[in-house]
Amino acid sequence: MSNKWFYSLLVGLLLCTAVNGLVYADNTRTITDMTGRTVVVPSEIKNVLCDWMQTVVVVYGVAPDKLEAWPSAMAQTNDTKEYFPDTYESLPLVPGWKGGNGDGGNYETFISKKPDVVIVSYYPKSPDDTSAFSLVSERQQKLGSIPVVALSDTMNITNSPALIQFMGDLLGEQDQAKDLIGFYNRVVDMVTKKVASIPEDKKVKVYYCIDKDGLSTSGRLYSDLIELCGGINVATYGNLSESGVSAGSVPQVSVEQVLNWNPDVIFAEDQSFCSKVGTDPAWKDVKAVKDGRVYHVPKTGFSWFCCPPSINRIIGIPWAAKMMYPDLFKDMDLEGLIKEFHTLFYHKSISDDQVKKILNS
């Protein structure tokens, strides 16, 4: 009789154990998030909310059926209907926290949605910055019993596999995560192998601008993508303060400064800038303008280059590489990669005509 009792107890204990952390009788498990915090989450997560766009892109790519709502900034994105399935595009909006700070967030709305977890961003401004961790702790305190799970370093394109893998493990979508990481690894390998042998003095100089006047640049923020593709971001080449760039995450420059840098290529987020720069006398002597190498950054729901700074930028790797080095990548099937990316990451197939429209925008 005692042996039977012991066997029953052992079976019960085994049923309360899982591979990804400890699972208790109350159907929870303990995980470590990307900041090193220990968080108790449901053993099966069905409903997720995110603090802002850079986190929601990761969740959407890995587990769209578990996304409960979009951050309110999604209302400013006008082309999602064309590139996202109706089921996901029509999800409700909730006010979040732009850039990880307190602007616009509404804890009461988050709590009323009763998510299983809330995914938030963690990115300290410097190695000594403790305010980012304190902010994550504040989110947890104000959301009460709803687990808060933090993602780290979403802005770094090379951290994409870690973000995707973490989310796949958290949400039980390891197969989907494997497919997304496989795509990333393939395009990175394709690009980096070819640009590795380019001498420093032969690398393409790139100026990236955000606004309609072309004078708001990125500073160091998006240099990772340019550098990964074998280019030099002129706005961060050398000491910025000595190059005449004002401080801030979105530095303001002058046309004279751009002319002094004389970039080979310009990547621009604003279509109106691309349309007018070729006939603007102030820009006529900039090499990229003279050579007709001003490219509008595609946006299919999310930008391929910047906002939000997350895994949406992965498709920007082959696109930027081909724009910067067209001869080197003349055999690249960019159109095929674009279609594959949208199917994998945005869960909707797009047509050849749509791809042509994207590349000719």
Describe the structure.
It contains 15 helices and 13 strands. It is an alpha/beta fold and 361 residues long. The protein folds into three domains: 1-32, no CATH class; 34-173, Rossmann fold, CATH 3.40.50.1980; 182-359, Rossmann fold (3-Layer(aba) Sandwich). 38% of the residues are buried.
Write a brief caption for the model.
The protein has 361 residues and is an alpha/beta fold.
What's the CATH topology name of the largest domain?
Answer: Rossmann fold
Strand order of the largest sheet: 9-8-10-11
Overall structural class, as computed from helix and strand content, comes to: alpha/beta
Query: CATH homologous superfamily of the largest domain - what is it?
Result: Nitrogenase molybdenum iron protein domain
CATH architecture of the largest domain: 3-Layer(aba) Sandwich
Mean pLDDT: 86
Q: How many domains comprise the coordinates?
A: 3
Kindly estimate the percentage of residues that lie in beta strands according to DSSP: 5-15%
- In whole angstroms, how far apart are the ends? 77 Å
Report Rg: 23 Å
Globally, the shape reads globular
Order of helix and strand elements from N to C terminus: HEEEHEHHEHEHEHHEHEHEHHEEEHHH
Name of the CATH class of the largest domain: Alpha Beta
Helix content: 25-40%
Q: How many β-strands, per DSSP? A: 13
Largest sheet: 4 strands, parallel
User: Which ranges are low-confidence, i.e. pLDDT below 50, for 5 or more consecutive residues?
Assistant: 1-25, 238-248
